[in-house]
Amino acid sequence: MRVTQTMLSNNMLRNLMNGQSKMDKYMEQLYTGKRISRPSDDPVIAMKGMHYRGQVTEVEQYKRNLSEVHNWMDNADAGLDKMNLAMQRIRELTVQASTTTYDDDALKSIKEEVSQLKEQLREIVNTNVNGKYIFNGKDTSTPPMDEDGNITFNDEDVMIEISKGNELAVNVRLQDIFHPEDGNTIIEGIDSLLDKLEAGHSEDLVEIGNTLEVLDKHASNIINVRADLGARMNRVELIENRIDEQEVIAKKTMSENEDVHFEEAITNLITQETLHRAALAAGSRIIQPSLVDFLR
Amino acid sequence: MSTFHGLEMAKRALAAQQAALYTTGHNISNAHTDGYSRQRVNFNADIAFPPGSRNSPKIAGQLGTGVDVGAIQRIRDQFLDTQFRTENSRDGYWSSQRATLSRLEDLLNEPSDSGLSKTMKQFWQSLEDLSVNPENSGARSVVKERAVAVADTFNYLSDTLKSIQADLGDEIKITAERVNVLLKDINDLNKQIKRLEPHGYLPNDLYDERDRLVDELSEMVNIKVHTSDSGGDALTIAEGVYSIELLDANGNSLGDNDEKVFLIDASVDDLDVAENEFGIIFDEDDGYGFTVADSDDSSIAYLYEFKHFKQTGTLIGLVDSYYQYEGQSETTMSIPEISEKLDKLAKEFVEAFNEQHRAGYDFDGNEGIDFFDPSGVTAGSISVAEAILKDPNKIAAAGKRGDDGEALVGDGDNALELSRVFDQSIDDLDNQSVTNFYESLIGDIGVSAEESIRRQENTATLLSQVENQRLSVSAVSLDEEMTNLIKFQHAYNAAARSMTSMDEMLDRIINNMGLVGR
């Protein structure tokens, strides 16, 4: 075949350009750390990539939601703890008052403490975290208990999504503590105790001891609710572990799909660079001389 | 046999070698001229003496009379030209497809941290956050802002698609005009050639220029060259005038019954009417396709629909991106098709989202209103409803309200349901979810772009192979020219020496003969 200078220089240019475009591709892979930079590089990787990115975002979001779940539950748990302590104290005071060794003045001061404890219970029930009343179901903007100890509460659970399609109730339901269907709430029990303390020795002190039964029932309700909450917190912990694992898996899948294998890309680049240098060296030798250089 | 036979023969030899030297010089000068074919001088041995006639002298014969310059011819293979033009036309199609699709990929910018899918995911995130903190006015504002970002991204994509389409429209117009300019230039060369050839000349450089223009034309539309004689005393190796026929995608004639459709019909006597006006129309009434107007009667333009020219020429490459028509190449993604899908996506998303939003209750316990402006939603017009923009408390995060009609501000159930709209399969989106539908759209564009790159690389390889073959035949080799230069120089010197020896011979006869015995 007849080969001319134009062909040689055209071929050389074309091959150099091909080599350079490959180097450009490998360098882009190394700059970005991604195997592809546009869908046409590999449409399948691109589509999967969009999907996996979505998954990573979702998992991250669920982690964010979980921290809010903790916020709810930890605060509720703390509230129940304090509630329990208050009930214990009330019980102690009731036992003390029911013995005949205290005079009316002493009973008055017990009554004073009990009414303070009642106030504390009210404050706990009206716990407000970040602007939310956490013991009032979905009606988080209104305190469930008013000044007089009357309770109006919303009985709907606050649900938070903790994985795709899975929601978890994060609140403690006031009705589980107060059991309004039983007729007498803690507050009513304490109120009747207060009345009896007020009456003091003018009435039978044994009556005071009788309120213990009511108080104990409520105290055990609180403990039950707390146990239930504890169980849920355990479950959240398990879910959290799973979400952590999912995050690792999702990120790994995303990475495997679209991230560049550095060893491969660097090897490719070095190979290509060698080829490019060889092409340049060969080209520079071939296109330079012509017969003219050798004619006298 | 003439006394001066030798002088005449040497003179012809000098003239012939000189012509060859000049031609070599011309070749060297044009070694890198675009479209130039190397030329060579055709030497013939001149008519020998004596001729076979009645009065011819009875001497030993025949005696050679030297060299005759037959013609100066360019070296070119018409068959390779045909191959080149066919490939060039395909390469033109895929190059323009590749360029447009790559622009579209740049526009959509996926997968990335700034494309529509990311924006939508951020909107989803803000809804999740709202479902967790429905009483938080900050979370509401974020939802509003993220929704605005989604709408903005849709608007931006739609607007930019429109402007790319408008650019393509301009490019189509300009390319069609360029076709006519080329036709005119080719026919001008036809005219010059037709004036020269009847005199027995070979206008090689005009041929080259004409072929270069035809090459350029072949990139835009699929064409075939027919030649017809110029008449007169034209040489048999004269190439004649070019008629340019417009071909369909399979290389067949376009007219009814295989009648040829000529862009230049040079078979007519008067070349002034040989060009037929080429045009392109997008008109609901007149049709969609290429038009060729007969130059005899410019009022009649024949329409050839785009579907005939599948995957040939830059013009169809541009048209395939610009416009969607029946019979279009399946591999392509036209801009109207992408726009239509984006519009559909925006519309269905807004409908599903609004429906879910209306099912909820806002911060003040009122029933949800339309979140996005519901009227005539397209990707270009999608916008967050005015009421929501003014007051993010109108975002219906709650799934219920209290028995007394009061708001349940801690209820984020509807926000959660809203976040699920993205994954809910929608009938009118081919039973896909919003997320999946968009992913498939990106996938489709990716596949089209990948295909266009692959095909363009293939045609480019074929084209460069043909081009190399053509160069192998026609291009100037400097080594060869240098060799020729020396060859012809030697021949020239030898002819001069032969002239000198003739001169000495005559000198002997004229000045030194007849002096015998002096």
How would you characterize this protein structure?
Chain A has helices at residues 5-32, 43-98, 104-125, 174-178, 186-199, 206-258, 262-287; strands at 128-129, 132-133, 159-163, 166-169. Chain A has 296 residues and is mainly alpha-helical. Chain A has a two-stranded antiparallel sheet with strand order 1-2. In chain B, helix 3 (116-132) runs antiparallel to helix 4. The longest helix of chain B is centred in the N-terminal third of the chain and has 60 residues, at 137-196. Chain B starts with a helix and ends in a 6-residue tail after the last helix. At the A-B interface, helix 1, helix 2 and strand 3 of A face helix 2, helix 3, helix 9, helix 10 and helix 11 of B.
Descriptors:
heterodimer; A: 296 residues; mainly alpha; two-stranded antiparallel sheet; 7 helices; 4 strands; B: 518 residues; 3-stranded antiparallel β-sheet; 11 helices; 8 strands; elongated
What would you call the quaternary organization? heterodimer
Q: Please tally the helical runs of chain B, counting DSSP H or I stretches of 4 or more residues.
A: 11
Ends of chain A: how far apart? 28 Å
Strand content of chain B: 5-15%
Structural class, from secondary structure content of chain A? mainly alpha
Trace the largest sheet of chain A across and list its strands.
1-2
Q: Helical stretch count of chain A?
A: 7
State the largest interface.
A-B, 51 and 62 residues
Poorly predicted runs of chain A are none
- CA radius of gyration of chain B is 38 Å
The string of secondary-structure elements of chain A, in order, is HHHEEEEHHHH
Beta-strand content of chain A: under 5%
Please provide the count of β strands of chain B: 8
Choose one word for the global shape of chain A: rod-shaped
Span between N and C termini of chain B?
31 Å
Q: What pattern of helices and strands is seen along the backbone of chain B?
A: HEEHHHHEEEEEEHHHHHH
Specify the biggest β-sheet of chain A: 2 strands, antiparallel
Kindly name the structural category of chain B: mainly alpha
Write down the overall mean pLDDT of chain A: 87
Number of strands of chain A: 4
How would the global form of chain B be characterised? Answer: elongated
